[in-house]
Amino acid sequence: MAKEQDKFKQVIAHAKEYGYIFSSSEIYDGLSAVYDYGQNGVELKNNIKNYWWRSMVQMHEEIVGLDAAILMHPKTWKASGHVDAFNDPMIDNKDSKKRYRADVLVEDYVEKIEQKAQKEIAKAKKRFGDKFDEAEFVSTHPRVVKYRAQSKEILGRLAKSLTEEDLDDVKALIEELEIACPVSGSRDWTNVKQFNLMFGTKLGASADSASDLYLRPETAQGIFVNFANVQKTGRMKIPFGIAQIGKAFRNEIVARQFIFRQREFEQMEMQYFVRPGDELKWFEHWKEVRTKWHQSLGLGEENYRFHDHEKMAHYANAATDIEFNFPFGFKELEGIHSRTDFDLKAHENLSGKKLQFYDPEMEKSYVPYVIETSIGLDRMFLAVFSSALKEETLEDGSSRTVLKIPSILAPVKAAIFPLLKRDGLPEIAQEIMDDLKWDFNVIYDEKDAVGRRYRRQDAAGTPFCITVDHDTKEDHSVTIRRRDTMEQKRVKITELKSIIQKEIDFRHWLDI
Ligand code: GAP
């Protein structure tokens, strides 16, 4: 646990030191759970967006994009159910006065039980080596069976009481499990209350005529209300999808996990409209496609797992989370939901406008069903950044900090150095930079010894360093060094573009 916390602290410190993430309005002591992305952060963010957009929109003829406004007619949120049901159950500890999400307290308790099971599994794996049969072990080992049954029972009860809005039972569960406040260690809790997560704002100048609006808590509704516009103008045939990247806002109760849970964040969402009855087939399809997308980036298969929902959101008939092994454990990175026809039907009813598709094969109109893939851009950023940050011991016993961001996502693709600040070497390096910048984000650096410049770029996540030396003047070649292997090679200046291009080629990365 202490090790995990150290790693997390290191991630936060490194993100600041290398211009990735700053606290919002830091000179005024920051704003809780709001962050700014610095010079490297904005590049990484844009590259993640681009990788998602190209794989979803460019690679799918039947998916198109949209950029809807953040402010929407307030009836949108009535129809979608957010005004009445977008709540989190909260509970306060009377001694520390700290507020928690009641469901998260219970889930964290269950996670600790799961960690005990994982410990048993790891021990057995070590003992039995190649002969270890994990499936057999988890279904027969008495302690693991007991831990898993306990977890299932607790989560089942939590899901039931939340679905039935039985908040007294949620409190009873917390008390029965003897969950203590992580700050005060006390078990003196208030009752559980619902808390709406939407931020309200006003439209209009004068107080009397101003109307109440909300900052959107998800981008999805912008897609639903534009369903007919896009379907008709794009002559889209079912099945088809609409993709969008944009800001969302939630007044989160528990907001202390860096960019994991923010009050202002970005989502990358896609709604896929299908024939009623086909939705579970498409649900499986999108689970598979999205899993492949994640695996294509090479963050480690062992860092992902699925978590099927026990308690569905008010709109869903199937839902799963893709969880990632963040520095604080496995948590939701992406949600895949089968949203039925809930949203389109609700908007039809409240607006009085038809949101249907005439299916020529079936010779009838219907309200399509929807599969949604929804990933938090900031969480993806944290997944990439935290898994990339490594401390390595080198052959000579020295150590280096390296940020092994997948090169297609790296903010800067290459740093160009003159070996010395004289003898015409800076001019050649600058010339190379001026040529490469037409194709890639590159930087020039002449400060300090080359070894230190390498270390600086390793820590910043730059996949290539290119050094110009005295031989360059004779043979027009340079030394190119790779961040991950530290391998150095002599190549012609004219080859540089194709070497970098090959390394960050979209097809090479996505087509696994
Ligand atoms: N349209 C469906 C929807 O919004 P969600 O599970 O509430 O579903 C989808 O959110 C994704 O948005 C999550 O998987 C997560 O990655 C991201 N997300 C949600 N709340 C967030 C927050 N407060 N900060 C950062 N990312 C968040």
Structure characterization notes:
The structure is a single chain. With 512 residues, this protein is an alpha+beta fold. It has three domains: 38-78 and 197-393, Bira Bifunctional Protein, Domain 2 (BirA Bifunctional Protein, domain 2, 2-Layer Sandwich), CATH 3.30.930.10; 87-195, Herpes Virus-1; 412-510, Rossmann fold, CATH 3.40.50.800. Helices cover 40% and strands 25% of the residues. It has 18 helices and 23 strands. The strands form seven sheets. A seven-stranded mixed sheet has the order 3-9-10-16-13-12-11. Strands 20-19-21-22-23 form a five-stranded mixed sheet, with helices on both faces. A three-stranded antiparallel sheet has the order 5-4-6. A hairpin with a 7-residue loop joins strand 7 (200-203) and strand 8. Helix 5 (102-128) packs across helix 8 (167-176). It is globular. It starts with a helix and ends with a helix. The structure holds glycyl-adenosine-5'-phosphate. Glycyl-adenosine-5'-phosphate binds at residues 218, 220, 250, 252, 261-262, 265, 267, 269, 332-335, 372, 374-376, 378-379.
